[in-house]
Amino acid sequence: MGGGTSVRSQFRRAGVPGVQEALGRARGERFSLAELTEFTWQRGYIRDKARPGEVTLRDVLLREWEIVRTAKEGVAACHPLVTNPRPAAPSLDE
Questions:
Q1: In a domain, 55, yes or no
Q2: DSSP string, the chain
């Protein structure tokens, strides 16, 4: 990934839109955290006990894993275009 974009930033989630939308509609309504948690389980959201405030979907995780796996398999898969690159102006490296 070029342009200084880190891999980590590619995987940041802003949250699952369905949950955010549901919370927006439920604003002002009375419901417990247990009810919200049960709702997310029914909808197939996945959560991690270590990060209880975050949820995702199986399809999202599968896509992310595909990206990571492809990147790992592709590292050094091709020979470099220039086997022994040298700077155009070595004096600039001093």
A1: yes
A2: --TT--HHHHT-----HHHHHHHHHHTT----HHHHHHHHHHTTEEEETTEEEEEEEHHHHHHHHHHHHHHHHHTT-S--SSSS---SSGGGG-
